[in-house]
Design goal:
This protein is an alpha/beta fold and about 325 residues long. Helices cover about 35% and strands about 20% of the residues. InterPro entries: NAD(P)-bd_dom_sf, Polysac_CapD-like, Polysaccharide_Synthase-Rel, PseB.
């Protein structure tokens, strides 16, 4: 697998975020890229990242995915792109919907165009379970971004550029996660929970980044890769973090789901199952039907949802994850 990164120029959009830091750490420690270009808007965050890693293979490029011209220049001589840039906070996207569209959708179009015209080999987008049956604008923009990436393969035509996506659940302890909130509320003795029936998929940042890296090695172009990860009830998560605390149920918030879905019944009809992940294959003429012959077909009506998962986190499991 080292061959796809070794000696290559890599561009990471949104590179100063939590995912970007962990991706940079793993790539620099375990692979030998020619360069890793961090593409993001904030000069101060880039400075902090530069001080943290101090690696001559790192390049820091100020730019926004909304800026097509800047992306074109940034992708010059790039072999691999990981597209992690996005507006991710659900309330912020609801309050600033046009900005969310301009970054998450228009920015994705710019990444696709720049990658094709610069003859990039592989482009992987980071998606989310909230893109499935979206009930908020953030999820809707990520759903569109997924569709754009899958169909991006028709735009590349006979060129070598291939596009795929990874879709996974909540990252333990990440910015915006409920876990830091519960840890803070623990000090006051009361945790606020929207609904006692709520469930979520969970994985660590290391697991998420390694899944993206492994998927990039396997990708043929057009797939959506989904890891098999455990679920946990929000009430069980609260008990694990603050077993002595009181629980205050506040009611489900606008744009929030009781349960998250990572594969729908309709997607399952053209998906394959492997030992530790699923692949949703594209339903388009460009797809090689022999690409995943080792995978198993899913049964009729299969749905991969956090409330009917076969794997569940215990309190001990969760504590080992953060």
């Amino acid at each position: 697998m080292k061959d796809i990164f070794d000696g290559k120029n890599i561009l990471l959009t949104g590179g100063t975020g939590s995912f970007g830091h962990k991706f940079t750490e793993i790539i620099l420690n375990n692979y030998s890229p020619k360069s890793l270009r961090i593409y993001s808007r904030g000069e101060y965050n880039q400075y902090l990242m530069q001080q943290k890693f101090q690696d001559e293979r790192l390049r820091f490029l100020i730019g926004d995915v909304r800026d097509k011209d800047r992306l074109y220049r940034a992708m010059n001589d790039v072999d691999i792109v990981v597209h992690a840039a996005a507006l991710k906070q659900v309330p912020a996207c609801e309050y600033n919907p046009i900005e969310a569209v301009r970054t998450n959708i228009d920015g994705t179009v710019n990444v696709i165009d720049a990658a094709i015209d610069n003859n990039v080999e592989r482009v992987m987008a980071i998606s989310t379970d909230k893109a499935v049956h979206p009930v908020n604008l953030y999820g809707a923009t990520k759903m569109v971004a997924e569709k754009l990436f899958v169909q991006g393969n028709t735009y590349s035509g006979k060129r070598k550029t291939k596009f795929s996506c990874t879709r996974y659940g909540n990252v333990v302890g990440s910015r915006g996660s409920v876990i830091p909130l519960f840890q803070k509320q623990k000090e006051k003795g009361t945790l606020t929970i929207t609904d006692e029936k709520m469930t979520r998929f969970w994985l660590t940042l290391d697991q998420g980044v390694n899944f993206v890296i492994n998927s990039m090695e396997k990708m043929q172009g057009g797939e959506i890769f989904i890891p098999k990860i455990p679920s946990m009830k929000i009430t069980a998560l609260a008990d694990a973090i603050a077993p002595e605390a009181n629980k205050e149920f506040t009611g489900i918030r606008p744009g929030e789901k009781l349960h998250e879905i990572m594969i729908t019944e309709d997607e399952a009809r053209h998906a394959k199952e492997f030992s530790d992940y699923f692949v949703i294959e594209p339903e388009h003429p460009f797809w090689d039907k022999n690409a995943n012959v080792d995978g198993n077909d899913l049964h009729e009506g299969f749905r991969y949802s956090s409330d009917i998962n076969t794997e569940w986190l215990t309190a001990e499991d969760l504590k080992e994850m953060y």
